[in-house]
UniProtKB/TrEMBL annotation:
Name of the protein in question: histidine kinase
Keyword Protein transport included in the entry's annotation: no
PROSITE patterns registered for this protein in UniProt: PAC, PAS
Pfam families per UniProt: PAS_3, PAS_9
All residue ranges annotated as the PAS domain in the record: 1-71, 153-194
Organism from which the protein derives: marine sediment metagenome
GO MF entry, a single one: protein histidine kinase activity
Keyword set, alphabetical order: Kinase, Phosphoprotein, Transferase
Domain PAC: 73-125
Enzyme class: transferase
Length: 194
């Protein structure tokens, strides 16, 4: 039991047990670190009412209902911390049942994915800007993995060469066949210097 408690308390993710109405039964130290609430404050809270942002509550009620039915759940949920910051978590939960199959509580692991999601959003925005810049300036780009030989083209490169992405899979050989003969030597030198 001591080993499991140590594992529970030292986990890098929030680990908690939640009752059928959303009441917190047990929660680890990581929750204190991420939310700013003390363990005692958290144990007096309800995940739905006190932590989950209003827009996510109905969905999380459904997650709990599915858990009570014995279905494992993977989901995203936003919690409001003590200072008002919103954190986004990826949750993985299962139900703990009695031998008779009666629901006891849910066991949840919540991984903070706030920064990952921000980075993904920023990357998508950058990709949109790059595509638009290439479209407006009529400049395409391509990447060749010299180890695997895989060639990737930007949308504008497809347009410049008159192909549709869903109709043409670029390969080095195909690319070489459509590059102007005067440019083949330059392209090959650039690839060799990579």
């Amino acid at each position: 039991k001591i080993k499991y408690r140590d594992l529970f308390e030292s986990a890098s993710d929030i680990v908690l047990a939640v009752g059928s109405q959303g009441e917190i039964i047990d929660i680890n130290r990581r929750a204190e670190e991420l939310t700013g609430f003390t363990r005692q404050e958290l144990l007096e809270m309800n995940v739905l009412r006190d932590l989950t942002v209003a827009e996510d509550r109905d969905r999380i009620r459904q997650v709990i209902a599915n858990l009570i039915k014995g279905l494992r759940q993977v989901y995203e949920v936003r919690w409001r911390t003590k200072d008002g910051t919103i954190l986004l978590f990826e949750g993985s939960s299962s139900a703990r049942m009695t031998k008779e199959g009666k629901f006891l509580c849910t066991r949840c692991i919540l991984r903070d994915i706030t920064e990952r999601k921000k980075a993904e959003k920023a990357l998508k925005e950058s990709e949109v800007l790059l595509r638009e810049a290439q479209r407006v300036s009529h400049v395409g780009s391509w990447v060749l993995n010299v180890v695997t030989g895989k060639l990737s083209w930007s949308d504008e490169t497809y347009r410049i060469y008159g192909f549709k992405p869903q109709e043409f899979v670029p390969t080095y050989e195909k690319f070489s066949s459509i590059v102007h003969p005067d440019d083949n030597k330059f392209v090959q030198e650039e690839i060799n210097s990579a």
